[in-house]
Amino acid sequence: MTSRNSRLRAARDIKRRAKAPSTYPPEHCVVPGCELPTQRSASQGLSEEYCKPHREHLRAHGHEHRKSYSKAELMPFRQAVLEWYRLHQHDAPVRMALSRLEALMSSQGRSQDAYRQRSMSPEGKARNTLARLHEAGKTAEQLFLIVLTIQATQAELGPWGAPDWEAVQISKQAKRLRGAAGTHYPDGTSRYPRSEGLYLRHLGRMIEERASIAFGSDTIDHIRAQARPAAKVSRPPARPPRDDSRDELRRMEAFLGLFGAGGRTTIVGG
Ligand SMILES: [Zn+2]
């Protein structure tokens, strides 16, 4: 465990290096289509791969540009997960996963307030969030359903090739559970830890590891298949293939109609 002083010293060192002039020829962000220089090249941080906006999006969402799942995106998967859970909640592996999740939350001791959380290590922050969930009366069941929902949604909608995505989405959903997102002080003010950074990955991984003993990829495939018809509806219909010649004809018809050519207009196509 590192002391608070050595962490502060490390933080100052990072700040100094982040502002240091770039010693390399300027390099561009690795995200396709992004023209911005990397943080390092712009003297705006340490990243040698990403520009500042993409780096910050990655910290907050677990992907360079994909936004976190919306409620509407998750809904069909959530419904299918509840269906599955109704039938399997008494299975031995599910009971075991639930008791491990329960132990994970209840073994973290008393939570520190959101202000003190700021100076904790990423793992400490993750454990503190678990303690807060426990004190707010959140159940192992809630965490378990979140893991299944996120895994099934990711399997169906992607994004793929983003190793932190699932863990970050799981902890975002867990943190969002009502009453557990921050500290509420007696004077009526509230403080919420920023939802970004390494601790989201720690938190998501800890929860996912305990929940995942209860199901395999066949379960995820089953839930996906159940959710698919509803998931399709919420997406915009595919655009028909573009047909320029027809478009041109329709524009001409509309044009002639505008001038009151009257009756049926026949256009001889070439
Ligand atoms: Zn970029």
* Radius of gyration computed on alpha carbons: 25 Å
The end-to-end span amounts to 78 Å
Q: How are strands sequenced across the largest beta sheet?
A: 1-2
> Roughly how much helix do the residues carry, as a percent range?
55-70%
Broad shape: globular
Q: Count the E strands.
A: 2
Order of helices and strands: HHHHHHHHEEHHH
State which percent range the strand residues make up.
Answer: under 5%
Heteromolecules bound: zinc ion
Unreliable runs: 261-267
Total of helices: 11
Mean pLDDT: 85
What structural category do the secondary elements indicate? mainly alpha
Largest sheet: 2 strands, antiparallel
**Total domains:** 2
Structure description:
- With 270 residues, the protein is mainly α.
- The chain has two domains: 16-61, no CATH class; 71-233, no CATH class.
- 56% of the residues lie in helices and 1% in strands.
- It has eleven helices and two strands; from the N terminus they run H-H-H-H-H-H-H-H-E-E-H-H-H.
- It has a two-stranded antiparallel ribbon.
- Helix 4 crosses helix 7 and helix 6 packs across helix 9 (198-211).
- The relative contact order is 0.11.
- The model is unreliable at 261-267 (pLDDT under 50).
- Zinc ion binds at residues 29, 31, 34, 36, 50-51, 54.
Question: Quick recap of the structure?
Answer:
The protein has 270 residues and is mainly alpha-helical. The protein contains eleven helices and two strands, in the order ααααααααββααα.
